[in-house]
Fold these 2 entries.
Entry 1:
Amino acid sequence: QVQLVESGGGVVQPGRSLRLSCAASGFIFNSYGMHWVRQAPGKGLEWVAVIWYDGSNKYYADSVKGRFTISRDNSKNTLYVQMNSLRAEDTAIYYCARSVSGVSSSAMDVWGQGTTVTVSS
Amino acid sequence: SSELTQDPAVSVALGQTVRITCQGDSLRTYDASWYQQKPGQAPILVIYGKNNRPSGIPDRFSGSSSGNTASLTITGAQAEDEADYYCNSRDSSGNQLVFGTGTKVTVL
């Protein structure tokens, strides 16, 4: 079945780095754009970044631009986000989600279960 | 980036109709998508594009748009529809996305 499974979350000190992964299965991964979306404790959803189906275009929220890098390895059916210079306000559940199209559609039709990132000293 | 504004909470009697709205300048140009999120769960896409429902979403969910406002309507609300609902769309630049502030729907 169509599935996304995130991993790599944990507790990290402010200023440190973390890389999250999202393993995709059950669909042709290299045909779809992919997003990262996060949700701080008790808060709403916040879009983080998107990467096109072939990795040719990447876009970021202003809150993470210059600190986070989205990437994908289509040979491994895996999406990544490298998070540097982490701040307390980056504490959240991080979801990967599939775009309904190969590019950056706002519609995300498949979501992972999320991985939790806590930034704390 | 643009903002999408939603009412924080609405309530609806079982079997009645409720409309959830999402306002933002970018909605004059771009379609909204709508998501349902229950506590402790990942969001689920319920409406996207002009008024498209993914497979498995009941037809009591429908979407519409006018000017700078997108709406999600639940016709004949069920107890299982009690959840948080979020809209999202592209922002004015067209490259970034933005989520609405979210609406908590209570079914009485």
Entry 2:
Amino acid sequence: SYELTQPPSVSVSPGQTASITCSGDKLGDKYACWYHQKPGQSPVLVIYQNTKRPSGIPERFSGSNSGNTATLTISGTQAMDEAVYYCQAWDSSTVVFGGGTKLTVL
Amino acid sequence: QVQLQESGPGLVKPSETLSLTCTVSGYSISSGYYWGWIRQPPGKGLEWIGSLYHSGTTYYNPSLKSRVSISVHTSKNQFSLKLSSVTAADTAVFFCARGQGWVTAPTFDYWGQGALVTVSS
């Protein structure tokens, strides 16, 4: 079965750029999307179709996908961005989620 | 504004069938999109269970397919989940969500608040 691998944790200082990776076999040939989830809340879509932002998501969130890696980039990271981030893709008629990355804003 | 709300028993006995319903407001299920279930064991990540289209077309996670059934009730604007032969490993928060971009780029754009289901005798 298809697997998506994310680092368990990423730390960033306020105002700096955070990058969270998601790796999978030939992931660049598929569409990736990203969610963030804060404690006790439902996931929120922040990037879809590799690079698109839903309405209401700040411009500091951006995405890319090439080769075997999709990347979520948060520019000018704010304290409110602290959350767990999940990538997700579609393979063989199956939705696959990455294991999640805890973003800590120190 | 699209809203989804999960409902159902919060406690299920081992070997029994877990049943949940998702009520959708602000959008008619029969108008389109896919509708799905995702679960999250306490302290762990997200796992897709399955999704369906209002016509009845379904997609299931292969790891759960033998135990899962998702159906739609368009007259009530609801869809439901049944997971049979549950064990403690099925204890999780269950989310219902709307899926867009099926089949090329599935994404869940609206989510319910989640319902905790505990499997215990």
